[in-house]
Each structure stands twice: as C-alpha cells, then as structure tokens.
Amino acid sequence: VDFRLARFVTSAPDIHHLPPDEGVEIAFAGRSNAGKSSALNTLTDHNGLAHTSKRPGRTQLINVFSLTEDKRLVDLPGYGFAKVPLEMKIKWQQALAEYLEHRRCLKGLVVLMDVRHPLKDLDHNMIRWGVAAGMPVLVLLTKADKLKQAEKNKTLRHVKAELAELEGEVVVQLFSSLKGTGREPALKVLNEWLHR
Ligand code: GDP
Predict the structure, then answer these.
(1) Which is the closest atom of ligand 1 to the Cα of 146?
(2) Are the C-beta atoms of 13 and 60 separated by less than 8 Å?
(3) Is 36 a pocket residue for ligand 1 (Cβ < 6 Å)?
(4) DSSP 3-state assignment of 183?
(5) Which residues belong to any copy of the EngB-type G domain (predicted)?
C-alpha cells in the first residue's frame, strides 16, 4: 500500500466511536510530544495530515486516516501529559487497553518514543499490552537527529535488550521525521502487517 494515499476520515471522541471493526487497522501511540504527528506526516509524505505541536493535554480525539477502502491508520491521543487529571489518565489507559485487546481489525501497534527519553512506564505498558493482545509492535525511537551516532546506537541496543524480555514480535528502529531516517524500513514493516 502506498502510504501517500492516506486521507483524513474522522475524529472520534473515544474508542466506541471508531469506524466499524472491519478491514485492517494499524494504531499509533506515544507520549504527547513524542513526535507521533510528525512521524505520521513523514510516513504518509503528507505535511498537514496529522497536526503537530497541538497543545497537549486538552480534549484529545482519535484521528482516523484511510489508506485504501479497508485499510486505516489510527492516531491515538498522546498520553503522559502531566497536567491531565489522574482520573482522566486512568480512564484513558483503560480505554486503550480495551481497544488493544478487543479491536479485531487491529493488526499492529506503533509506539513512538523520543530517543532521548525512551521506555517510560506508560510506554512499557502500551508495548506490553500490544504484545499481550498478540499483535506485532513497531517501536520508533523518534528525533534520532538529536543524538550523535554512538549515543543513538547505544539507546537502540538498550531498548532492544529491554524489550527482548517480552517475547513478543517487537521491532525497534531509529526514526527522524526531520531527516527521513527510518522511513523506508518502517513502511516495510507496516506494509507487511497490512498484508497478513
Ligand atoms: P506529538 O505530540 O507526538 O504528535 O509530537 P509532534 O509531532 O507534534 O512533535 C513534537 C515536537 O517535536 C515538535 O516541536 C516537532 O517539531 C518536534 N519533532 C518531531 N519529530 C522530530 C524529529 O524527527 N526531529 C526533530 N529534531 N524534532 C522533531
């Protein structure tokens, strides 16, 4: 599938308002400010597709993009923003866990983490839930342009070693929206998922 075909479909206030559970879906998750919108724009070669640098912590919607008639990308709200009330955080975590567990068309999860601040608790949770739900997980270490070669390779090794313990299908890659680093390998993984 050519990811440049991506088009905005709808914004859903919660997981119960998503399109029907049919076809094939890939979800994108990450802490707010991890670079998720930028990565979606880079992967789809579409500058304004996902909105970058929106004020985090406000009412956040799930944005749905179509690739083809039956294939979609789902942009989940960024998590971990400090100013969100605890009760809302817990509610949202539960909704995410439910979505990962029960959404039948969901064929894979992309988790984005800033390469300088990888594997926070909530990131670990997301990855674990994805693995527990039996789906492949692609971890993109974003903003790779911010670190020197040796530093980013060290982080890559560390994250891979940590996640190897999960015994799931987890792929970890460096990514930079600024430089386009990791775009092709990520698209290869995602396309493989879409055709399973
Ligand atoms: P989101 O909240 O996860 O959707 O994050 P955004 O995509 O809005 O990015 C958050 C901030 O990080 C913005 O200021 C982006 O310009 C910056 N950013 C995102 N990706 C990159 C990248 O690959 N390299 C650099 N240097 N900055 C990036």
Answers:
(1) 26
(2) no
(3) yes
(4) helix
(5) 22-196
Query: Is 84:57 a contact under the CB 8 Å cutoff?
Result: yes
CATH number at residue 77: 3.40.50.300
Domain extent at residue 183: 3-194
Neighbours of 66 (CB within 10 A): 17
Count how many domains the chain has: 1
Query: What are 73-131's pLDDT values in tens digits?
Result: 999 988 888 778 888 888 888 888 889 999 999 999 999 999 999 999 999 999 999 99
Token reading at 130: 């994805």
ipTM over 0.95: yes
Q: Give the bridge partners for 68, in sequence order.
A: 71
Order of strands across the sheet with 7-12? 7-12, 62-68, 71-75, 24-30, 106-114, 137-142, 170-174
Q: Provide the residue type at 114 as one letter.
A: D
Question: Would you say the CB of residue 145 lies under 6 angstroms from ligand 1?
Answer: yes
Closest ligand 1 atom to 31 CA:
3
